[in-house]
């Protein structure tokens, strides 16, 4: 049996998978099904970390019976929140909601927060981190917002936009991790893996 570690992504987000793949990671996808509703009086940062933990724990529990000390398994849970002026902006529920969100973010600076929770199996050692990136959108006209919403890109994305997509033309400034805005701060993921004992001389890669 090989002692090469396994990396499990507890998310069905194609953006997170793309980021890991582009960074050279070999991994498996095992989405966690959890209730992602915010709790009363919970801050966006607390919510992002809590949901990341719930995703990692749910997936870890599901795969734990097959985990072996001869092949360490690392389970990665992540959750992203977009915050502006103290208001949390989630994934748009409709075209009108997408337009509302983008209108609220336009001409302002907002924060993209991603909570990360990493669990190592079979011993369940864990590490957590919160990444924060500042993003500024330029001023947008109602016509620009309507045209962008009509592309369908805002849907399924916290904050209603994709920095790596058509919305790139609207971003005037970013401070912090770019990959965090896409959906996963890859450098922070690597740091947590190393802290949990990912082999020093082994860098995961695709053929």
Query: What is the CA-based Rg, rounded?
Result: 18 Å
Count of DSSP-assigned helices: 6
Query: What portion of residues is helical?
Result: 25-40%
What is the rounded distance between the termini? Answer: 21 Å
β content, as a range? 25-35%
Q: What structural class do the secondary elements suggest?
A: alpha/beta
Number of domains: 1
Q: Give the integer mean of the pLDDT values.
A: 92
Q: In the CATH hierarchy, what is the class?
A: Alpha Beta
| CATH topology tier name | Maf protein
Q: In the CATH hierarchy, what is the architecture at level 2? A: Alpha-Beta Complex
As residue ranges, the low-confidence spans are: none
- The H/E string reads EHEHEEHEEHEHH
Total E-strand runs: 7
Q: What overall form do the CA principal axes indicate? A: elongated
Q: Report the sheet with the most strands, covering strand number, pairing sense and barrel closure.
A: 7 strands, mixed
